[in-house]
Amino acid sequence: MKRNFNHLILAVLLAFTAPGFAGEVKPADAAGRPATEQAAVTQETDLDINNPIEKAFAKDFEMAQATPEINYVNEAYLEAWKAEMANVAAVVKKLLPHQDDGKRVDDYVAAGIALADKAFELEMLNWISDPEAPIADRSFGTGATGGAMLAQARVYKQVTLNLITHYQANPDMAYSFIYSGKGADLEKLRAQ
Fold first, then answer.
1. Using DSSP, how many helices (H) and how many strands (E) does the chain show?
2. For residue 59, what is the enclosing H or E element?
3. Single pTM value for the model
4. What is the DSSP string of 125-184?
5. For 90-124, how does the pLDDT look when each residue is reduced to its tens digit (9 = 90+)?
6. Distance between CA 31 and CA 162 in Å, rounded?
7. Residue 20 contacts residue 26 (beta carbons within 8 Å)
8. Which of 22, 26, 41, 45 is the most exposed place for a label (fewest CB within 10 A)?
9. CA–CA gap between residue 79 and residue 74 (Å, rounded)
10. Residue 139, beta-bridge partner list
């Protein structure tokens, strides 16, 4: 049973990298897409790239070089998406007309957190050093923690963007991000 669950988690994680996932925009086919479908894809792509979290951390991801800096940036990025996910879930729950529907949002977020935790574990396993040694003697590579936090953050981000898309399905609603930071502030870390 556990093995099947792990395979399911792996399949879901691999789906995040599949073409067309997370708002990848492809040209319209010869028949053309309906304008509303194209607008929805464009809106998802805009959310994926043009949000305050991505803008704030873009410079940090470019500047971070040493493992401690990369870990610092990835942890701050993870926390930003985790907070945004909690906020949008609360916003969506207030929008729902039936009180029981809020439990479904809670279940969705809980499943996203569980998936993010599995993504963390999977990425840690990806960074095992010295695969020739017995399992008990293996250690994790120096990039493991940063890579695992980034994998976890990406799941939080996708859950957040999915909830925002659900919220904005009503054309009168526009989600406003709560994030107002300036990224990880690497200069402050380097000054220490």
1. 7, 2
2. helix 52-63
3. 0.72
4. HHTEE-TTS-GGG-EE-TTHHHHHHHHHHHHHHHHHHHHHHHHTTSTT----------TT
5. 999 998 888 788 999 999 999 999 999 999 998 88
6. 28
7. yes
8. 26
9. 9
10. 129
Q: What confidence tier does 171 reach under pLDDT thresholds 50, 70, 90?
A: confident
List b or e across 63-91, with b for residues whose CB sees 16 or more CB atoms inside 10 angstroms: ebeeeebbbbbbbbbbebbbbbbebbbeb
145 pLDDT tier (thresholds 50, 70, 90) = confident
Residue count (the chain)? 192
Domain ranges of the chain: 37-191
When pLDDT is cut at 50, 70 and 90, the band that residue 163 belongs to is very high
What is each CA distance from 56 to 23, 47, 134, 186, in whole angstroms? 21, 14, 42, 12
Listed in sequence order, the residues at least 6 apart from 81 whose beta carbon sits closer than 8 Å to its beta carbon are 53, 153, 156, 157, 160
Q: What is the pLDDT of residue 77?
A: 97
Q: Across the chain, what does the average pLDDT equal?
A: 78
pLDDT at 108: 97
Q: How far is residue 8 from each of residues 1, 19, 125, 153, 154, measured CA to CA in Å?
A: 11, 19, 17, 19, 18
- The residue to which tokens 């969506």 are assigned: 92
Half-sphere exposure of 71 (CA within 13 A, CB side): 8
Q: Compute the distance between CA of residue 37 and CA of residue 3 in angstroms, rounded to an integer.
A: 38
